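Researcher: I'd like a structural prediction for the single chain below. Treat it as a standalone chain; there are no partners to consider.
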Amino acid sequence: MENCVITIAREYGSGGRTIGERLAQKLSIPYYDKNRTAAFMRRFLEEWMSIQVQSRLFSEKRAFIKASFFRLRVRSLHLMKIFLTIRQKSSESLRQKNPV
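Model: Treating it as a single chain, here is the predicted structure.
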């Protein structure tokens, strides 16, 4: 039995849970009651929330890294401009001191 679903309507104290468990055992199919389903859903939601939190933290880290990289890049460009200016001024002063 591949896709078999059996539902049992019962009243409190009728033994429906026991009948369902025995029937599932006899037919070799999994047995799910509201307790197992609720536990599964609780576990699923906890894992889902954990993934959402991790995803959010990852997004925040990625945004922080991007911003940090951008700031470093701007600083590097600024330092490069300063370095080129210094180099240009020093080469000009050398030319003035030692004309060829």
